[in-house]
Every structure is written in C-alpha cells, then in structure tokens.
# Entry
Amino acid sequence: MTAIRNVGAPPTRLGGADLYEWDYLVQEDRAHRLIYTDPAIFEAEMTHIFGGTWTYLAHESELPEVNDFITRRLGLRPLIIVRDAEGKIRALYNRCTHRGTTLCRFDKGNSKSFQCPYHGWNFLNSGQLRGVPWPEGYAADMRDPKYNLAQVPRVESYRGFIFGTLNLDALPLTDHLGPIATLIDEWLDRNPGGKVVVCEANRFRFKANWKLAYDNSCDGYHVAYSHRSLLETENRFAGENAKGMSYYRDSPDAQPMYMRYTGHGNHYKDKRPNLEKRSGGLWALESMHPGMEHYEADFIRRYGKRAFSLLDLAGSEPVNINVFPNLSLLGNHIQVFEPISVEETNAIWYGTMIVDDGSIGADGVRDINALRMRTQEGFPNFGEVDDIANFEQIQRGLMAIEDEWVYMHRGLGIPDRVKANHDGTITAPATDEAFMREHFKEWKRLMRTRANLAIRREP
Ligand code: FES
Ligand SMILES: [Fe+2]
# Structure
C-alpha cells in the first residue's frame, strides 16, 4: 500500500472549476477588491497557495531535541511539527484519524507519542497509530495505514528554516528559493557560527486579509507617512546621527536603497547601501532603548576597540527579506503571517538570539541577546501597530463595493526606472510597487494551476 495519497484539488465549493477570470481580477497595474474580500477566493488560496507552494512552518531551533514538538498551521490545517524519535522533522496533521478532533492542544513540548483527548487513540510521533482503547471492539484491522496520521508529504529545511508543501511537483526547496536564499545566507552569516536561535513571539491578530500584510512587506512608499510618530520618536534624541528609518525622510528614491524581486513571489528591500560600512554603524542607527548607554559603556570597558563590532550584532540588519506567502525577516526578527479567515490574520513576530561559537564568550552573548530583545520591543511594537491599522482600514475601505480597484502601478511605465536584470531578478527604487505587481503574477499562476497535491501516511 502506497503511503502517498494524491488528493489533487480537494473538493471545495469551487468543485474544480475556475472561480474567476484571474487575468481580470489581477491586472498589471491594479487588483480587484474581491481578492481581499471574497470567502471563496480565500478558500481556494488555502489549497492553491498554502499547500500548492512552499510555506514556512517553523525554525529548527524550536525543536532542538529528539521528540520535541510545536503546533503550527499550514493555511488552516492544524499541524504538529515534530523531531521524531529518529531525529527526522515531520509535519503531522494535528487531526485524529478517528473522528477528527485536534490531537495535541499544547503550543510545544516533548513527547514520544500523542494521545487523543476524545477517545484515547494513541499515535507515535512518527504518525503511526500505536494503539486504541479496547481493540476487541473493532472487527477492522487497526494496523491499516489509513488510521495513521496524515502528514505533509514534503518537508525541507533551508539553514534552519523549515518549509512544507503538499505539491509533489514543487521544485526542491533550494531551487524554489533561488536568489532569496543568498539574502537569507547574508542575514545569518553576520552572526557567530552563521546561526540564530528563534525565541518567544510577540503576537498580533488583525481584522484584514493576509495579503495586505504581504503587499506591505516591501513597501517603501508608506514609511514616512504611516510611521511618522515612530520616526519622530526615534529621532528626538538623535542629534546629528539620524536613527532608525530616517533615510525615508526626504527623497527616499534618491537614496541608494532599492527593492528587488527574485522570483516565486519572493522579494527584499535592501537599505544596507544607505549606510557607511564601518564597525558601529548599525549600532549607531539603532533607535534609543532604555539601558543602551549603560550597555555601550560596559562593552567599551570590557572589549575596547572590539566593542562596536559586537554591539552591531544587537543592531537591526537593514534589510527586509520576504518569502512568499508568509515569512519576513526584518532587522533581528522573523515575522510569520497566518491566515485565519478572509478578513482575519495573525502576524507573529519571533525574536532571535545569537549563539556562542567560542568567539565572544557566554557573558558577551548573553548581553548581546538582552539588547536584541530590546529591539523586539522597538519596531515590532511601535511600527507594526501602524501597519496593522492600515490593513484594517483597507479592509473597511474595500467594503465600498462599487469602487472596485486598488492600484499598484507606482514606477510602472517610467523608462529605465524598473530594471530587469540578467539573472531574471527585477530591481526598482525603494518606493516602487514593482514587488507587488510581481508577487501577484506568482499568486495568479498558483491560483490557476491544478497542482499535484498529496498527503502522506506512514505505511
Ligand atoms: S476522535 Fe480521537 S480517539 Fe476519537
Ligand atoms: Fe510599515
């Protein structure tokens, strides 16, 4: 008996037919309000996007030991991400095969098996049904693999970032990531040992469609307006040295920062060229947090000339890396979007810590990580609320049914402004909406593709 079962496009209200004329709903310069408001489109996205392409699930550092688990989601599917008894990372459906209840109700833990709270069926963390209470009551062979937990058939990691897809024909993860993998490398490689450990999260829930968050992830146009109070707060004490995102103040497109689309819905905004490359540059840009001056003086006392390069490890990397459809790396943080319904989304910000590879020492690493947590109190708390207010107000605005279109044509049609590069990537000034036009091409491609979806069970 094969362990892989093809599900194709599972039955939904769509019944396998194309719901809409996708080329009408998403055009080069504009998108129709329905893509953000129609529950049937949302339902289709939960297989075509969250299932049809690679989706970020979790970070390996959240499962350091054998038998560790965390509960997450792939679209709306509840999952248990486990490092099983053999050390293999699996994404089990958190759904009992008996009558369908969620099996595990904890956020995280360590367990060799999961016992269903309803009637006590017990499953190994490999997904196999281990036993049922009073088996003599079953005439059926309970060793039939159909009683083993469903699993995401393809789970792969890139440098600790765990992704899953139901699509058997999806490219290998590294090929799918393509050039954005280089950005992830750079984001990691500035840290000791080229690593981070993901730590507890800052959770937001907002009343708006998940795509509004992804549409904003590379948007350099809104910063000076939407985040004005944050920029002013950051700069109040800054004197000559502008802090935070101050390079958005005057003419952001005259700055060397830029956006680049790298394919498969992925893009990044690179603000690093705005900065003079020098030790202490990132630290000097970091906005004011209580206790900063004390730490800085202490680092200088302990490490002398080396202090500022160490303090840079607490500074936020000025690049936003967006991996379609649900992952952003910003500064020192990881942000994950989780759709809940057509008009409700979780935005979860995880902090990251550096690890001691012997080059700094445990005390230094502890203090750098303490400072990194202060940055989690910065933008994620004071900037994200501005963005979320925009998302919720867009969702309200889109209830104006007769006014159908949202525009994303900034930079379109201006000669030499948007550049197609030899490697297939696309570059544009920081305030352009080219990234949005491009990720919608990928969205449309996925929405119209009848992907080869499957679930897997242990034999
Ligand atoms: S629903 Fe899980 S044992 Fe009955
Ligand atoms: Fe923003």
Remarks:
- The longest strand covers residues 197-206.
